[in-house]
Write a structure and sequence with these properties.
The chain is of the alpha/beta class. It contains 13 helices and twelve strands. Strand 4 and strand 5 form a beta hairpin. The longest helix is centred in the middle third of the chain and has 18 residues.
Length: about 325
């Protein structure tokens, strides 16, 4: 498997114009992805996960713009490229799979024709060669009777098969980086498992680096080498998946993990809902943005926002753990 820095974000700030003003949908985000690595990005709706991915792809809505920071892919600064140069990278080097394949596929064109489009545009394959490539791709992603299926329209595919077709499209030009935005949300559990196994196999067999955006912590546990937890447009925790799951160092991560059933905890441990709601991005609270919902809040949390700093094995944006307090021990004595 290849190694080396593939993608590097430094201080990225993405702003969106809304009715009430301007919001920082992505606020000072920095992270990197190595070749062949799988990185998970988790958080509630509105935390900035998808907007981070769209910033990397430079596919922001008209009301959005990258206001600050650097996005480097294989050493090239993506924020400085022309749209034509960016289109060439999107088509060949970076691919993105969206969460709803029915809205991503055009209902009036045959599925195989749509999957072949990147091959015609970027690889200049003629119609016959592109058709052969699509059959091969469909077979690779587990679509049976690939030649017949390629001639069908999207409405003739199940949800799982549509998602496989979208993955085939994303893989068609052999990208170095695959961004999967909630790729299993609309699918039942069995199909989810099949799609995730497919993505895992692509990473293993082809060394394709993957950014997996999800709210499903179970998916992250089974798929990702590292995980980033986002809240209100900021990274609040980052580390190796096993470290973050075993010893979360931010109360938001701690709360997320205790709001879902787990096999690695005591039977008597109760699930805990996270109190409150994510903040209004146009009226963010002072200090730590999670402090109004935090079970470990101290006075400093409401006054001053912490930096993302090393806390034991990972990075965390928390005054409580930065002073050496374990969240588990604090909860046990609380």
């Amino acid at each position: 498997m290849p190694h080396g820095r593939l993608l590097e974000l430094t201080g990225v700030e993405t702003q969106l114009k809304v009715k009430d003003g301007t919001v920082r949908a992505v606020d000072g985000v920095s992270f990197s992805v190595d070749a062949g690595e799988t990185l998970g990005i988790v958080g509630e709706s509105g935390s900035g996960k998808s907007m981070t991915a769209l910033s990397i792809m430079r596919l922001l809505p008209r009301s959005g713009a990258i206001a600050a920071g650097s996005i480097k892919f294989k050493g090239r600064e993506l924020t400085e490229l022309s749209e034509d140069e960016m289109e060439a990278i999107r088509g060949t080097e970076i691919a993105m799979i969206f969460q709803d394949p029915m809205t991503s596929l055009n209902p009036v064109f045959r599925t195989g024709w749509q999957v072949a489009e990147p091959l015609r545009i970027h690889r200049h394959e003629d119609r016959r060669r592109a058709e052969q490539s699509v059959v091969s791709l469909f077979t690779q992603v587990g679509i049976p009777d690939a030649a017949r299926r390629a001639a069908q329209f999207p409405h003739m595919f199940s949800g799982g098969m549509r998602q496989r077709a979208m993955i085939a499209m994303g893989l068609s030009t052999g990208p170095s980086l695959l961004i999967a935005d909630e790729p299993t949300t609309a699918l039942d559990v069995t199909i989810q498992a099949q799609i995730l196994e497919l993505l895992r196999g692509l990473n293993r067999d082809h060394g394709t680096a993957t950014i997996l955006i999800t709210h499903n912590l179970g998916v992250v546990a089974g798929m990702c080498d590292r995980v980033i937890v986002m809240y209100a447009g900021r990274i609040v925790e980052e580390g190796r998946t096993e470290d973050v799951f075993a010893h979360p160092e931010h109360p938001y991560t701690w709360s997320l993990l205790r709001s879902i059933p787990r096999l690695d905890v005591e039977e008597h441990e109760e699930l805990r809902a996270i109190e409150g709601s994510p903040p209004n991005m146009t009226k963010l609270p002072a200090g730590c943005k999670f402090h109004p919902r935090c079970p470990f809040v101290i006075p400093r949390c409401a006054q001053e926002e912490p930096e993302l700093r090393p806390v034991r094995e990972q990075l965390a944006r928390c005054w409580v753990t930065q002073q050496g307090t374990s969240l588990d021990s604090a909860a046990a004595h609380g």
